[in-house]
Amino acid sequence: MTTLPHRVLRALDEFNAAHPWDHNAHYHRWILRQLPRHFDSALDVGSGSGDLARLLAGRAGTVQGIDSDPKIIARARELTPQATPVTFTTADALTGIPADSYDVITCVATVHHLPFADALTAFRRHLAPGGTLVILGLSRPTTPVDQLLGTVASPVNAATGWLKNRGRTAPRPLSMTATTRPADMAFPEIVREAHAVLPGARLRRRLFWRYTLVWHHR
């Protein structure tokens, strides 16, 4: 598989560093399209500064956002109007989920920090019958398809950053400042483990080094 020359990739990396944009927020509207128009309760795992949780509040009776970082939880509370039906809690994604069940569970760019099968098992346990789980995750590129998507995404990423920042250099978005680590699971491995825990789950590779998982609890 032919990839972009190293010099071009380095130039794109430098350009992207000067024109950052939030790849996760790019998929928020897509996530909402996977969900019912109205539901009673939602859980956002790895909620960060709360952007997705606040969007979910437009459809949900209550939203619970959890994150292991108390500083980002404090910031999420500051950014959320008091009338918004969202509660943010510092909690562990595997053992600290506050309620028994939710109609919707979302998890954006967080599951690769967790033991994958254990995380899916916890989400399944807390998803109410008829509920929907949506994950936006990161995978380690290993296949020709991964390389092709990465090659396509690099210039598109640069163009999007330029347009979103109107050609100006910009600071990193708040949601991109949290400590992260690279994904260590390849997409085929993710698919195998996901189907073992969540039969019928729908997984797709996406642009900008992401994949999606949607599962309905029948």
Brief descriptors of the model:
218 residues; alpha/beta; 36% helix; 23% strand; globular
Structure description:
The chain is an alpha/beta fold and 218 residues long. It is 36% helix and 23% strand. The chain has 7 helices and 7 strands; from the N terminus they run ααβαβαββαβααββ. The protein has helices at 6-18, 28-33, 51-56, 70-79, 116-126, 144-164, 187-197; strands at 39-45, 60-67, 86-90, 102-108, 127-137, 202-206, 210-216. It has a 7-stranded mixed sheet. Strand 4 (102-108), helix 5 (116-126) and strand 5 (127-137) form a beta-alpha-beta unit. Helix 1 (6-18) runs parallel beside helix 6 (144-164) and helix 5 (116-126) packs parallel to helix 7 (187-197). The protein is globular and about 50 Å long. The N and C termini lie far apart (40 Å).
Adjacency order of strands in the biggest sheet: 3-2-1-4-5-7-6
Helix/strand structural class: alpha/beta
Please report which band the strand proportion falls in: under 5%, 5-15%, 15-25%, 25-35%, 35-45% or over 45%: 15-25%
Output mean pLDDT.
Answer: 83
Please trace the helix and strand order, writing H or E for each element.
HHEHEHEEHEHHEE
Count of distinct strands: 7
The number of helical elements comes to 7
Shape: globular
The biggest sheet amounts to:
7 strands, mixed
User: What is the C-alpha radius of gyration, as a whole number of Å?
Assistant: 18 Å
The CA-CA distance between the termini, in Å, is 40 Å
Unreliable stretches (pLDDT < 50, length at least 5) are 11-21, 156-165
DSSP helix fraction:
25-40%
